[in-house]
Write a structure and sequence with these properties.
With 462 residues, the protein is mostly helical. The chain contains 18 helices and no strands.
Length: 462
């Protein structure tokens, strides 16, 4: 690699601004809009979770967009034009989501089935397009990070960018809490809609501006093709060969299942957390938005603690096990603090939950790198990424659906029990992740997949 393409710290921090923007938008969609739809507008939980899940269901499109950015440059650049296009599209869709949500609320008040059905389909379609736009922007962005870093630099780059994603979550939560403090106690849609729309317009404009700042001048013309292609590409095996490789080892399935369970144990409460704070703890909109900031601060501390101290001292498996155990304990604490309905206790538990999430996430990322064959890195990273995206989609859908089911089964007036049921299911998933982790064997994984890759390539040559 040419020296001028290496990423010194100032340039890496500037490039990471884009990831911070994604974190800011994520907390608004996963937290604020969830809470407004569930609590203030009283949408069914399954509808809210299902609509938001469509964003994650678009994750397989990342493979297509990655190939398109490799093969079709704009003005000699393979990455930044797609990043800018994707950012422009998802920013516009973020703004359009606000009037569409309130249009659906108006449809519910009319009671006309065809109007409701059309509005629901439109909301799901908008979030699906939002997911496609996110994939269009983020896939070339990650490819740009790879293009601009040498192999030994990438762990530092990925770690710092992941931290900036968490910083974006914290900033987004704080901005939401400050900007929408005037909505405390307000549930009138005529008051909510203009305030939320103005807030989303300002956030979207800031995201667009910061994305340009983050990526301007980062990609030299023609660099993407020169750095990402060639005879020794790691992802040069075909789709059929990749499928044969993935299905040939039980250890791949074990780790795939672990990632599903682990990610569900982290995010199943996403669609209901702010409504939990509102319905059980009596917290206003600004206060529930701060829960994501507390979680983000804890996550950032956990990422740093695991990266600089726990993983080097305990090892990846022991740290991942500790992270899963802490996540399980925090989920049980989330259930218990609901009995007291003390908002301050909920805030403390959210910081602890974030700390556990950071430790578990850092350790799992390290395991993911270890369980990736250099000869097929693109394939394995794609599989692991698909597991995480799939579980986040299922989490959004399942979280809202379980809340609806629990509400239906609970006697009238027992609000707490419905939320406790969802959190207990999430705790069970954390226990399942612990069980699957104990069945994972790094040496056997490498031996099995190494032999499988040799067989696949030999069969192709023969």
């Amino acid at each position: 690699m040419d020296h001028q393409l290496a990423l010194p710290l100032p340039r890496l921090l500037r490039l990471g601004l884009f990831q911070g923007c994604l974190g800011c938008l994520a907390v608004i969609f996963a937290g604020l809009l969830n809470r407004v739809m569930l609590t203030e507008l009283e949408f069914p939980g399954l509808l809210v979770g299902g609509a938001l899940a469509f964003e994650q269901f678009m994750a397989p499109s990342r493979i297509l967009f990655g190939q398109v950015s490799d093969a079709h440059p704009w003005a000699g650049r393979h990455r930044t034009p797609y990043i800018w296009l994707g950012t422009a599209v998802f920013s516009v869709l973020a703004v359009l989501s606000i009037p569409l949500i309130f249009h659906l609320h108006a449809a519910f008040t009319t009671g006309q089935p065809w109007v409701i059905g059309f509005a629901e389909a439109a909301l799901c379609g908008l979030f699906a397009l939002y997911g496609l736009a996110i994939s269009l922007a983020t896939t070339p962005y990650l490819a740009l990070v790879i293009d601009l870093t040498e192999e030994q630099e990438r762990p530092r780059a990925v770690g710092l960018i992941w931290c900036l994603l968490t910083v974006g979550i914290v900033v987004g939560a704080i901005a939401t809490a400050i900007s929408l403090k005037g909505l405390d106690g307000v549930s009138d849609p005529r008051v909510l809609e203009p305030v939320l729309l103005d807030f989303m317009v300002r956030v979207s404009l800031a995201v667009l501006a910061l994305t340009v700042v983050a990526t301007w001048g980062m990609e030299p013309a023609g660099a993407g093709r020169r750095l990402s292609s060639g005879a020794n590409r790691e992802d040069a095996i075909s789709l059929r060969q990749a499928w044969q490789l993935i299905t040939s080892s039980s250890q791949v399935l074990v780790f795939f299942s672990f990632l599903l369970a682990f990610t569900l144990a982290l995010f199943l409460q996403d669609p209901i957390l702010e409504s939990y704070g509102a319905d059980v703890f009596g917290m206003p909109i600004a206060a529930t938005a701060s829960l994501s900031a507390l979680w983000g601060v804890g996550t950032l501390l956990g990422l740093l603690l695991a990266g600089f101290w726990l993983v080097p001292r305990l090892g990846k498996f022991a740290s991942a096990r500790l992270g899963c155990q802490m996540i399980l304990g925090c989920l049980l604490l989330l259930v218990l603090v609901g009995l007291s309905a003390q908002a301050n206790l909920l805030r403390i538990v959210m910081v602890l939950f974030g700390l556990a999430s950071g430790i578990g996430t850092n350790s799992t990322l390290c395991l993911m790198l270890d369980l990736t064959l250099p000869q097929a890195a693109g394939t394995f990273v794609g599989v692991w990424g698909l597991a995480q995206a799939l579980s986040r989609a299922i989490g959004k859908l399942l979280g809202g659906g379980l809340l609806d089911l629990a509400r239906w089964l609970q006697p009238e007036g027992l609000i707490y029990g419905s939320y406790a049921a969802v959190l207990l299911v999430e705790a069970a998933l954390a226990f399942l992740a612990l069980t699957l982790l104990s069945r994972l064997n790094l040496r056997q994984f490498r031996e099995d997949t190494g032999r499988s890759l040799d067989r696949v390539l030999a069969a192709e040559l023969g």
